[in-house]
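In this section we walk through a basic example: taking a raw amino acid sequence and producing a predicted 3D structure, encoded as C-alpha cells. The instruction is simple. Fold the sequence below.
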Amino acid sequence: GLSQYSGDPRTEWDLSAYSTRDQVLEAMRNLRYKGGNTFTGLALTHVLEQNLKPEAGARLEAEKLVILLTDGKSQDDANLAAQTLKNLGIEIFAIGVKNADEAELKQVASEPLELTVYNVLDFPLLSSLVGKLTRVLCTRIKEKSNKENADIPVDTGPQLSPTDLKISAVTSKSMHLTWSPPLRPPKKYRVVYYPSKGGIPKEVVLDGAVSSLRLSNLTSHTEYLVSVFPIYDTVVGDGLRGVTSTLPLSSPRSLRVSELSHNSMRLSWKAAQGATQYLVLCSAAPDGAED
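The resulting C-alpha cell sequence is shown next.
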C-alpha cells in the first residue's frame, strides 16, 4: 500500500489493490509527485487510521510495517504519532533524502536504528538502498513472526469494533462522545481528533472499560474529525469515525445607551453565554455621522 502526503495525506492505493509485483511496479511508474508541506505526524496518523485497517487489506495476523520516505523536517509532531504506531507493534523504517532531519528520523524509527534509519543525499541514490532494505525487511518479518503466536482468527473484525458513535452536548469549545463497546472489551481506546481543514491531531487514551469522553479546549465554529480506536494486546480494531462542528461564540445582544450627559453615558446589554470578560471600545463619530 502507498500513501503520499504534504499538508493533507492521500492514499494512492491500499494493501488490497494489487496482487502481483508487476501491478505494483506499474502503479509506481504512474504515480504523480505531490508537492507541498511536510506534515509527517498527520501522515502517520492517516496510515494508522486508513491504511492499516482490515477493509484496506490489512490482515489481523500479519506483521505491520511502515516505511517513511521524506525529504524534509516535519512541520508537526511526528514523534508522537510514530510512538502511537510503535506502541501498537507497528515497525517503522525511516528513509531521509536531501534535507531530511536525521535526528527526527531516529526519533520516528523503531529500534534498532542501525537497521531502520537510512539517509541519502539525493533521490537517485535511493536505488542503492533497495537490496539491503529488502533483506532487512524480510528478515525482520520472519523474526517477529517466529516470536509471536499469530493465532488470531481473521474473521474477528466485528467483535473487535465499537459501534454507534454519538456526539452530543456540543458547545463553542467542547463536545461529548459516547459509543457502544465491542463484544470483546479492548485493553484501551485511542481517541484522535483534529480540524477537518488541517491541524495537528490530538489524542486521548482511555481505559477499555470507558465508553465516553468529553473533548474540551476546542476552537469555536470549527468542523472536527473524530476517530475512536479499540486497542488490544496484538491488534487494533476497526475505528469509529464522526464529524461535527463546534458552535460559534455567542455575542452580547440588545445594546442600550442611557443616562447621557455632556461627558458620560451608561451602556447595558444582554450577556453573552460563557463570556468571562467584555472589551468596550468607544471613539468619537466622524463629523456628519448619525449620533
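Looking at the output, two observations stand out. The two ends are 68 Å apart (CA to CA). Confidence is low (pLDDT under 50) at residues 149-156. In the next section we compare this with other chains.
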